[in-house]
Amino acid sequence: MIVMSGHLRSALFKDFTELDSGYSASLIEKGFYFITSLGHQAVMVFFVLSGYFVGGSVLKAKNNFSFKNYLIARLSRLWTPLFPILLLTIIIDYFTGIVSNEILVGNHFSTLMSGPNGDYSSSPITFISNMLFLQTVYTPVYGSNGPLWSLANEFWYYILFPLLMGLMGFTSQNRNKRVVYGVITLLIIVFVSSNMMLGFMIWVMGALVYLITKKKVIIFNIWFFAFSLVLFIFSLVGSKVNILGNFYTTYSDVFIGFTFSIFLLSVINSRIPNFSFINLRKISFWISEISYTLYIVHFPIVLLIYSLYYSDNQLFFNGTSILQYLTWLVLIIFLSVVMWYLFERKTPFIRNQLKKLVKDI
């Protein structure tokens, strides 16, 4: 949601640095720009959560871990909405190119802060590469769909973690298997993911949170919660404002991952509250259901909106512009729900079909 809202804000509104020098922004406006500028930081948070859930599932299985079942679960999860959304990307890009081909060429990259940057490719090779999660490794992301960069990271973290756990004896006591795991791990690091290791460190933090919570070390404490929340917010602010020098700026992703992991420890055993007027559990579950589809489908739509209405006429922050922003935001969420309904919700069915296929082979 934060990634999408940030991309939409970049498309509709003038950048904060472009506002007149004498202009005095309100606290609400500053807050709006700050929150919608945290898309990259939100991905780091997601890496930690992914490490907690996916890495935690590997650690939970221990010696009962099955690489075959694990791969089927991960690939069915990733591929089910990805294939149709890659097709949708090229269809949307076709219309974006008709309206403003210079966007696809990369002339607006500095405004949008994502998407094509002179490396646009919609070739069959790039399509296959993105399906195999080799974008940013051997090819660009497919079409205009810039956020797909993190999908490659995610997939190879999914593969590396159980390999390392097997190599270290957590999930396998077979010496021959461990040798094979070691060779495969080395090949992946050298030929695929050498530039992804910083993100993998953040991802592993989530798995460590799982290990700690399973030891029943952490219980909910209001002071620990408050301290960890302040620390996490400080890391977010520090990533946007150079208050701790170049060293922090260089490794701000790691600090965000670390502080969020501490925050996660502080809340992991607490329950989501329900109120008489709102059911937060159902809302959070619903958002989690559509989040993957929303992430991989929103950006080509944002680009089309930008090309049609805002490429030459971006907005200032006011009541009317916020209303436009919220209208587009609701539309993008609605389209994401449609795509989720058509494809991602069928993931369990696809997973079962893959299991039958593998069993038959």
Describe the structure.
- The protein has 361 residues and is mostly helical.
- It contains 15 helices and 2 strands.
- The chain has helices spanning 2-12, 27-35, 39-61, 67-105, 109-112, 124-131, 149-167, 175-191, 197-214, 222-240, 246-250, 252-267, 280-310, 319-342, 347-360, and strands spanning 274-275, 278-279.
- Strands 1-2 form a two-stranded antiparallel sheet.
- The longest helix is centred in the N-terminal third of the chain and has 39 residues, at 67-105.
Set out the fold topology.
Layout: H1 2-12, H2 27-35, H3 39-61, H4 67-105, H5 109-112, H6 124-131, H7 149-167, H8 175-191, H9 197-214, H10 222-240, H11 246-250, H12 252-267, E1 274-275, E2 278-279, H13 280-310, H14 319-342, H15 347-360
Antiparallel strand pairs: 1-2
Quickly count the helices: 15
**What structural category characterises the helix and strand content?**
mainly alpha
Overall shape: it is globular
Sheet of most strands: 2 strands, antiparallel
- Beta-strand level of the residues, as a percent range? under 5%
Number of strands: 2
Q: What is the terminal-to-terminal distance?
A: 40 Å
- How many domains? 1
Q: Write down the overall mean pLDDT.
A: 91
H-E string: HHHHHHHHHHHHEEHHH
How many whole angstroms does the radius of gyration measure?
22 Å
Give the low-confidence spans: none
Strand order of the largest sheet: 1-2
Helix content percent band? over 70%
